[in-house]
Amino acid sequence: MSHQNLRFLVQPGGKLTGRIRVPGDKSISHRSIMLGSLAEGITQVSGFLQGEDCLCTLQAFRTMGVQIEGPSEDGNLTIHGVGLRGLTAPDTDLEMGNSGTSMRLMSGLMSGQTFDVRMTGDSSLSKRPMKRVTVPLALMGARIDATEQGTPPLEVHGGSTLKGIHYAMPMASAQVKSALLLAGLYAEGETSVTEPAPTRDHTERMLRGFGYTVHTEGNRISLEGGGKLTATAIDVPSDISSAAFFMVGASIAEGSDLMIEHVGMNPTRTGVIDILRLMGANLELLNLREVGGEPVADIRVRSAKLQGIRIPEELVPLAIDEFPVLFVAASCATGETVLTGAEELRVKESDRIQVMADGLQACGIQAQPTPDGIIIQGGQLSGGHVTSHNDHRIAMSFAIAGLGATSPILIHDCATVNTSFPGFVTLAQQAGLGITTDGE
Ligand code: S3P
């Protein structure tokens, strides 16, 4: 996993055309490994995302004795499930790399095991808050040690007896919800969470796909411990969070007409489409269908004049990973865009409010960070030097910004793009972006 200074150099202008397919959904790919490993029987996965984050999850389960064949070049995996009680103690630390999803969801799952594990992360993950999972898991009876600041490495002690609790989540986080539900598989009685706003529901959907009963009543999600998971087939759709870069790119680049195929349309993930449409984007959803319990569509994007908007707060959790590139859309729009209620962006792979504001300012845009959001005045992106702070989505957002810029953009620290979007540069070139790399 190299995090050396891979740089992107993006030439200004151009347009995006043709048909593309972006890689598999990251959230669904993680969960396919976790639930497939803990199921009884053989789970076949297709469309698995071979990004570093999901490969960390895959490797962790291999280290705990699960036989997993693949992934093949086109993302096929065969997981020989060991059952909920079938994992074996790893003889090394579980390395979670850059992946908050792996670390937080696994905290829940590992709390229910009979053995101890130690989970480590890279420099970004080592700064991210884990108390949001360790505190409620401790209420269930889990024993997890973190640093004094509540950051990784985490040591999860096995052999605890877990009890179901009810937990009212203080923040809208699918990772916290999922950690508790996954611990709940091992707990006595019912585990339930309420969420302050809807968050992605892939864990609930996939548990049901594996034959486990999960109740959703309004904002309350619950399950009973002591059941079992039965192997199934999982077809992972393309990641809407990866598609978002191209939705924005084709919207801002005049003359674009791009088809993005087979994109996951789970309603807890489609905030980016709603926000772009409010800004005046021309997005057409075609061939809507259901694939393995998740809605999927092809998205046709044609360039459009965008307007600045006040982003409705209820859309924030439904577009949480797409804000870096939405800020690029706002920079190319007419007028002001105001985001509020998005303080969670400050604790992602980087502080996405500050890092985007710095980068946009370096490219000639007025971007004013606020404690829980940002105010962006649409204008003309110039060009310039920016750093992604090793955040994959920041790197790709500034690559897309090149389409609306007047001179080249040089982006530092782009190697982490491989955590979520292997092949980004090649695919972006094919679609029409003038992007090259150096410094590998
Ligand atoms: C994810 C949930 C989100 C998201 C992350 C993936 C998941 O995090 O930002 O990229 O797969 O559950 P939060 O739930 O912490 O907002």
How would you describe what is shown here?
This protein is of the alpha+beta class. It folds into 2 domains: 7-24 and 237-438, UDP-n-acetylglucosamine1-carboxyvinyl-transferase, Chain; 26-235, UDP-n-acetylglucosamine1-carboxyvinyl-transferase, Chain. It is built from 13 helices and 23 strands. The protein has a 4-stranded mixed β-sheet with strand order 21-22-1-23. A 4-stranded mixed β-sheet has the order 2-15-17-16. It has a 4-stranded mixed β-sheet with strand order 4-5-3-14, covered by helices on one side. Helix 1 (26-38) runs parallel beside helix 6 (202-209), helix 3 (100-111) runs parallel beside helix 5 and helix 7 (240-252) runs parallel beside helix 11. The longest helix has 13 residues, at 26-38. The chain is globular. The structure holds shikimate-3-phosphate (S3P).
